[in-house]
Amino acid sequence: MKAFPVLFIWLLVCGASGAELRVDHVTVAGRDLTDLRAKFAAIGIPTEYGGKHTNGLTEMAQASFPDGSYLELIAAQDPKAGAGSHYWARFIDGNAGPCAWAIGSSDIAADAARLGGHVTDGGRKRADGVELRWKTSSIGAGIQGTYFPFMIQDITDRKLRAFPNGKPSINHLRGVAAVYIAVNDLAKAVTDYRKTFGLSEPERTTDKELGAALARFKGTPVVLAAADGPLLKTRLAQFGEGPFAFVFGVASSPANGELAVRWLPIQGMRIGVTGRIVRTAGPRRTN
Question: Are the C-beta atoms of 115 and 8 separated by less than 8 Å?
Fold first, then answer.
């Protein structure tokens, strides 16, 4: 009897479990890779060049983390020509910043059949000449990796893709902590995510700084966000539903205290770090 992968068994029963929503990588898009790399280096997230994709349209750089996830910066191979027919061309040519995210699959053909996806081959050649190959699939309709994450399964060793130098390139951040996804209808998006991934009811809050009503699924990186202000409304009008912010976890922080996100000063996008901040009482007055 064939042993089905864990993800597929869960999908047959109730969609997918929150445990399967583990980030493989997140993608930030821009027209010029040199510019993207400089912006991230300026906020303390240096990247290493990852090579050109086999599609002939895009190239990437990356920062890899101890938890196995990584940040991908993707741009047009020719900034003047743009990304052409690439499915993320609107994000790349429009300097969208956060645009997509991926989760891993151990049997992408089976998972794609269940979730209405279409498996395609992908790859790139690293700067050192190493050839990487993988398969990807969307989940449901829409642009790959936007409303829902896309799935990826490696043909070559995943470590070669995630860790070009054999180890994480970033140590002060532990990995991707949250993916903020802009949606038009929060109630519908919550229902879609619960049905697709077998999730419990999310925690609902409002973030005045982001201008958004949020639904956060505990135990997953997913934070759905509906516009409650002009900035997110503008983002939705320009780029549609999909990731608009990524948050990375600090490698070491106190075990107790208040969990807070600090948004970093990077032009044109929302990138944050999160950790627990212990608030201490001020000096005692002795008058």
Answer: no
